[in-house]
Specification:
- This protein is an alpha+beta fold.
- The protein has five helices and ten strands, in the order H-H-H-H-H-E-E-E-E-E-E-E-E-E-E.
- A hairpin with a 3-residue loop joins strand 1 and strand 2.
- It is globular, with a radius of gyration of 16 Å.
């Protein structure tokens, strides 16, 4: 089955290889640093793998690049509409993330995600580049950052250094939230973008 460059797998395949080469890393060395098997990395670079949140965040941490340098979020336009049914989710142990938009303004880069934490599940992260902002829309969310825990309800907001180990837990049913990842523009590799693949018009 062919993989379009517009899919999460297709974009990750192109961008992962470019980021790895930019850092001067072999697949073996990237495997050692990220604790991801060489066969898995080879599959991801060929577009045949099945990336998870854990994998992408681990690669972001090791390569020291924003998530969008790996997933190639949509460029901004005068009017951008992202339909829920047309956006591929990146899933992990407890979370489904849908990349919506990357916003660049001056020295700031902000990635916007629709985030769902599944009922009774927890999503752990060892940390990654950037500052994390979460706004809860529905449900009750437990957030743990280096041993400190807070509970958030609808309308509540939390901000923390994403480089620190952290986790999200759905405390009462599914949790819907908006996740913003903020970076400095100098933290990006400024990778050349691949030719756009087939994509629905806004």
């Amino acid at each position: 089955m062919s993989v379009s460059e517009g899919s999460v797998r297709g974009m990750l395949a192109v961008n992962l290889r470019q980021a790895r080469l930019e850092r001067g890393l072999s697949i073996s060395e990237l495997s050692r640093r990220s604790k991801i098997g060489k066969a898995t990395l080879s599959q991801l670079e060929s577009g045949a793998g099945n990336p998870t949140i854990e994998t992408v965040f681990s690669l972001s941490r090791v390569l020291e690049v924003p998530i969008s340098d790996l997933l190639d979020a949509r460029p901004a336009g005068e009017l951008t509409v992202v339909r829920a049914a047309e956006t591929e989710a990146l899933s992990g142990e407890g979370v489904d993330l849908r990349p919506l938009q990357r916003i660049e303004s001056g020295e700031a880069v902000i990635e916007v995600f629709d985030q769902r934490v599944r009922a009774g599940r927890r999503q752990d992260s060892l940390g990654h580049v950037g500052t994390e902002h979460t706004i809860v829309q529905a449900g009750r969310l437990g957030v743990r950052v280096e041993g400190r825990e807070v509970e958030l309800g609808p309308g509540d907001y939390v901000r923390f250094d994403a480089a620190r180990p952290h986790s999200y837990t759905a405390l009462d049913g599914d949790v819907r939230s908006v996740l913003l990842l903020q970076y400095r523009s100098d933290q990006r590799l400024h990778l050349p973008h691949p030719a756009p693949g087939p994509r629905s018009a806004p």
